[in-house]
Write a structure and sequence with these properties.
two-stranded antiparallel ribbon; disordered C terminus; three-stranded mixed sheet; Leucine-rich Repeat Variant; 416 residues
């Protein structure tokens, strides 16, 4: 197949070359042979712009495998060409840190600096910077332009700049980015920008647990817009226990969000077409999971017990995973009762989450034991759960009177 495509990449007919480049790109890195890459490098300078565009798209699909010096040099030139800049920028972003060469960064910086440039193109350039990677891959001189975009006059540019910083993750947790993103949270009028800034800070992890940001975060958890509340909850999930250690009032905010009935249309979900409906209480449960045992307050545990029987399957799953993360501190009669019911859930992922939660808390009721015995032949009930219960025996919660006993559950793991 590749020899045939290589010949067609050399065809005198431009349309044949364009189609061949598309076919090579569809094969991804598997087509990144020396001969193919050399020919694509030539096609990036083809006389016909549609061929140049197809070649840029092809090397983008190959990703890091196509990050050769000659290809990067051609892409840098295309970043300055009106017809194919978008394809070139997307190709550079797909190559990640392998594209962090001075010539590429100079071309991207030129797009970022130009306030008269097409807004969408500036956003794509910011996205490419984000995909290229962290501060180790991008010299400070280039990051300055990204910081400037966080304060651009156009809100769409500010949003894309915040998204780009978020893609860098913890590598972007510099004092400058922390300060400017916190300013966006505090002063921004557009909730989409606030949402992007909250997501970016959450992806930085513990490094984002600064007093200024956490103060803003507590306020955003009570924001009037459901999208901002969801983004703030995701930020808490990313930061984890450090957020609560520095600002315990965040737990009160999460307890309220676990009762939130609003739905947010998430257009950033990469696995859905268009958008995915996200419940605010679901995001709050994921935030509790990120915090772990430190989130085991009476209010949060009561609300998690309610969510274990929520009408929405994804909410039930998120609540069970939060219980798993909290561990033994999540043992309450209500939670144990609801886990027993969730073990019979029709949604497989919620059922699996319940099994994992039981294994994590290490406490069961007779009803849970009965259900585990029924599930012992299911392929996804593994030693991950039963092993935890069997390690030192299992405590069996008998009821409200608080009677406990140790019961050996070895027989649950035996073959029938």
């Amino acid at each position: 197949m590749l020899p045939v495509l290589l010949e067609r990449l050399r065809d005198p007919n431009g349309e044949v070359r364009r189609v061949a480049a598309g076919a090579v790109g569809a094969m991804g890195s598997a087509a990144a042979t020396e001969d193919i890459l050399a020919r694509l490098a030539e096609l990036l300078r083809d006389r016909e712009w549609v061929v140049r565009e197809a070649a840029a798209e092809a090397v983008g699909r190959m990703g890091r495998a196509a990050a050769r010096e000659d290809i990067l040099a051609s892409l840098a030139e295309l970043l300055r060409e009106g017809w194919v800049r978008r394809a070139a920028a997307e190709a550079v972003g797909a190559m990640g840190s392998a594209a962090a060469t001075p010539i590429i960064l100079d071309s991207l910086a030129e797009l970022l600096r130009n306030k008269y440039e097409n807004l969408e193109m500036r956003g794509i350039a910011a996205e490419a910077i984000g995909h290229i990677g962290g501060t180790a891959a991008i010299p400070p001189d280039y990051l300055i332009h990204l910081v400037e975009l966080l304060h651009d006059a156009n809100h769409r540019v500010r949003k894309e700049a915040a998204n780009a910083v978020g893609r860098m993750g913890s590598a972007a947790a510099t004092p400058d980015f922390l300060m400017h993103l916190t300013e966006l949270l505090r002063d921004e009028w557009n909730w989409r920008v606030q949402e992007a800034a909250a997501r970016a800070l959450g992806r930085m992890g513990n490094a984002a647990a600064t007093p200024g940001f956490l103060t803003c975060l507590a306020e955003l958890l009570r924001h009037e817009n459901s999208g901002v509340r969801c983004a703030a909850a995701r930020a808490v999930e990313g930061i984890g226990g450090a957020a609560v250690a520095a600002m315990p009032t965040i737990l009160d905010c999460l307890a309220d969000l676990l009762c939130d009935k609003d739905v947010y249309q998430d257009y950033s979900d990469p696995i859905s077409e268009g958008y995915r409906a996200v419940f605010v209480r679901e995001e709050a449960a994921w935030a509790v999971k990120g915090i772990g045992g430190a989130a085991a307050t009476p209010a949060i545990l009561d609300r998690l017990a309610d969510l274990l029987c929520d009408e929405n399957a994804e909410v039930r799953r998120a609540a069970a995973e939060a219980v798993e993360s909290i561990g033994s501190k999540a043992v309450t009669p209500a939670i144990l009762h609801r886990l027993a019911s969730l073990l019979q859930d029709e949604y497989n992922m919620a059922q699996i989450a319940a099994i994992r939660a039981v294994g994590s808390i290490g406490v069961v009721t007779p009803a849970i034991l009965d259900r585990l015995a029924e599930l012992r032949n299911e392929y996804w009930v593994t030693a991950e759960t039963l092993g935890r219960l069997m390690a030192q025996g299992v405590r069996v919660f008998e009821g409200q009177d608080g009677r406990w006993e140790v019961q050996d559950v070895t027989e649950l793991a035996e073959d029938p």
